[in-house]
Amino acid sequence: xxxxxxxxxxxxxxxxxxxxxxxxxxxxxxxxxxxxxxxxxxxxxxxxxxxxxxxxxxxxxxxxxxxxxxxxxxxxxxxxxxxxxxxxxxxxxxxxxxxxxxxxxxxxxxxxxxxxxxxxxxxxxxxxxxxxxxxxxxxxxxxxx
Length: 145
Description:
The chain is mainly alpha-helical and 145 residues long. It contains 5 helices and 3 strands. The chain has a 3-stranded antiparallel β-sheet. The protein is globular, with a radius of gyration of 16 Å. 21% of the residues are buried.
């Protein structure tokens, strides 16, 4: 059953209470992690200039705060709308950005690569798969499918 559908006035969000509870705690966890130098954030902030460490450091110094602020804003929207049944496009795009960030961080923590994804047996892998499934539904709804 699709959890997200395009409607005339935006997007219908049909998440069972158990899924909303699961998602409710995740934005705060990611927000807290954004304040650290945790290596799990590496995929959220890949090097802009991988072959030039000095330029990359300059870019990070200039852009990282703005990138973090954008992520925080998206997380705020998810928290504000976690119990909503309808979202507008801006809200759904914030959900998409936040779920993607959560999935990237979790995948990094789990050490998931294309080679290991089929063999992961850790319990958090189910959350990783769920976030990917929900993200796919958001993309399909935004694309109008």
